[in-house]
Amino acid sequence: MFDYLIVGAGFAGSVLAERLASEGNKKILIIDKREHIAGNAYDYYNNDGILIHKYGPHIFHTNSKEVFEYLGQFTPWRPYEHKVLGSVDGQLVPIPINLNTINQLYGLNLNSSEVEDFFASRAEKVAGVKTSEDVVVSKVGRELYEKFFRGYTRKMWDLDPSELDASVTARVPTRTNRDDRYFTDTYQAMPLHGYTQMFQKMLSHPNIKVMLNTDYKEIIDFIPYHNLIFTGPVDEYFNYCYGKLPYRSLEFKFETIDQEVFQPTGTVNYPNDQLYTRITDFKYLTGQKHPKTAVVYEFPKAEGDPYYPVPRPENAELYKKYQQLASSMTNTYFVGRLATYKYYNMDQVVAQALTTFKKIMQGQPETYINGQNILQS
């Protein structure tokens, strides 16, 4: 008899497995339908011996000391600040848009206060910012919106930014200084030996059993357990009874290049002409020493593994129906990006899992979603 059956061996499931096993002394079975642990953060050495991320680049950053120190129990960290360039008007310019971006793009020599005036002079008044287009146009105007955001967003989502929730482009700031780091979080680092090795250490507790290549539907009636933690798609759990929650997926094209590095920084975005959205050169991320490098091209698509919940009001309404169903379950916890239909960064999923663990240990009522006791929320 297992105390917990955990479906999904990504961040949400693995953190809860580790905490419940080591702190709660619970017996855990964690399963995954893929052939590996670590979820979308899975990395491995390709045939040329280069460490690559199978599901696209995963760059760790957080403002949470608790999350950083918790994961630090299972890996040494390598400091890494991610930088992104955008291919715009035949040039590679810093993203997010900052002082250097504007000066380079327009051949100017503005300072911080002058670039603030530059943005203000181009910004359009928007009554009630509702869409992704509104966010950008109200901050920096239509020309920069067209150059940097519209094409990229249309490729990424197969929707115009005017059809998407404001949260999509609100994730990308605009800066008036020369800070060209993609993230500004307090802690920015990569697991020194890769994500997979970090997960292996996390799941190495004697109370944890791991089963891979296993669909939970095949075993759920045969394995005795007290509580279920589900980190897969919430609509799948309920057999899509209200219909499918829409996601965007990605297709990845990997290449090994016979040179030390392929491009001047970790990631280059292509907002406009190409079919792919970005190219990532893995050796910047991993710090690996190797005479060759490996890159990945990302092509957004409608079908495939679910990566990005599509942030539109009708999808939020559909999710609420599933959330209501989940609230009627007992001894069942829905945790993580797919189970709560929300785009979380890795550190946010870890924080959510740690919060859920604390609530379980406090003996609070048995049904949670998104780390909250939904029977009382």
Topology overview:
Elements (H helix, E strand, L loop, with lengths): L1 E6 L3 H12 L5 E4 L11 E3 L5 E3 L7 E2 L2 H7 L5 E3 L4 E5 L2 E5 L3 H8 L5 H11 L9 H9 L1 H16 L9 H4 L16 E5 L3 H8 L5 E4 L4 H4 L5 E6 L3 H4 L9 E11 L9 E3 L8 E4 H5 L6 E9 L6 E2 L3 H15 L4 E3 L2 H4 L5 H16 L6 E2 L2 E2 L4
Parallel strand pairs: 1-2, 1-11, 2-10, 7-13, 11-17, 17-18
Antiparallel strand pairs: 3-4, 5-9, 6-9, 7-8, 12-15, 12-16, 13-14, 14-15, 18-19
Helix pairs in contact: 1-14, 5-6
Overview of the structural elements:
It is built from 14 helices and 19 strands. With 377 residues, it is an alpha/beta fold. The chain has two domains: 2-80 and 188-243 and 309-373, 3-Layer(aba) Sandwich (Rossmann fold), CATH 3.40.50.720; 84-170, no CATH class. A seven-stranded mixed β-sheet has the order 10-2-1-11-17-18-19, sandwiched between helices. The protein has a seven-stranded mixed β-sheet with strand order 8-7-13-14-15-12-16. The chain has a three-stranded antiparallel β-sheet with strand order 5-9-6. It is globular. The two termini are 31 Å apart. GO terms for molecular function: flavin adenine dinucleotide binding; UDP-galactopyranose mutase activity. Residues 147-343 form the UDP-galactopyranose mutase C-terminal domain. Pfam families: GLF, NAD_binding_8.
